[in-house]
Specification:
about 260 residues, Protein-Tyrosine Phosphatase, Chain A, 5 strands
Length: about 260
């Protein structure tokens, strides 16, 4: 199945994707139509296209401040079980500071990338409780209904959660990274970074290159690698993190796999 088949157009929702089709090490496949990931839902169209996916549970990683800026909005006829699971570490505070500094300093492209690396190192460690709640929600048997998890852009916190889920389902590193980097296709990285650079250039009164703003709109392999490195530093291995911090002991991990693999 091509990677593009996982990217699903839903009007007003960025980075909406089906995580199905990836293969675990024992040959089972993540079920299509059972796990979705995306950006926020505040601008979702009322065309009811979201109803096609039978989503019963929505897990929202955004902070209270993010939800004030982009309040949750359900399309008519859709009232899923809403699970707020705030997770920090999306570099939002630093990015706001960046915007405030633009009129006084050159665009700090290197510093921006470093902040995102730091965020990826911090998210799985400082937010263990929130990520465990994410797995707790996934472990609830929703019958044949689907689960959607999201943050604001659907790429950083959602990217880490998606990668951890795939590791818990015994999907290999290559496919896990493929899903992580699929954000860049889903958001049309070149076009989006160009638009963002033009907007920031006008705000700052200086020329900012599209390549400088890539961490704001897309992801790099090094981001996920940084998260893995931090997990290994603190827990020794990804599997130890899943068992100790996420409480995915063998019985719970087998249940998770039974729910989402076929």
């Amino acid at each position: 199945m091509s990677k593009q088949s996982r990217i699903i157009p839903v009007a007003g929702v960025k980075n909406f994707r089906d995580m199905g089709g990836y293969q675990s090490t024992d040959g089972r496949i993540i079920k299509w139509g059972h796990i979705f990931r995306s950006g926020h839902l505040a601008e979702m169209s009322n065309d009811n296209s979201i109803l096609n996916h039978n989503i019963q549970t929505v897990i929202d990683f955004r902070s209270d401040a993010e939800k004030v800026r982009h309040p949750v909005q359900w399309t008519e006829g859709w009232e899923p079980q809403y699970r707020p699971v705030p997770i920090g570490g999306n570099a939002a505070a630093w990015v706001k500071e960046l915007y405030d500094r633009l009129s006084k300093t050159n665009f700090p492209a290197k510093e921006l990338r470093e902040q995102f690396i730091k965020a990826f190192e911090m998210i799985p460690i400082a937010n263990k409780a929130g990520l465990k709640s994410f797995f707790d929600a996934l472990l609830e048997d929703n019958g044949n209904n689907a689960v959607l998890f999201h943050c604001t852009a659907g790429k950083d916190r959602t990217g880490i959660a998606g990668a951890l889920l795939m590791k818990a389902l015994d999907v290999n590193d290559e496919q896990t990274m493929q899903d992580f980097l699929l954000t860049n296709d889903a958001v049309d990285l070149d076009a989006t970074s160009t638009t963002m650079a033009e907007w920031l250039s006008a705000k700052a009164g200086q020329k900012i290159a599209p390549s400088d703003v890539l961490p704001l709109v897309g992801v790099e392999a090094d981001f996920l690698i940084a998260a893995y490195g931090s997990i290994r530093t603190h827990f020794g291995s990804i599997n130890a993190y899943l068992e100790d911090a996420m409480e995915l002991v063998p019985e719970r991990r087998k249940k998770l796999q039974a729910l989402y693999l076929r």
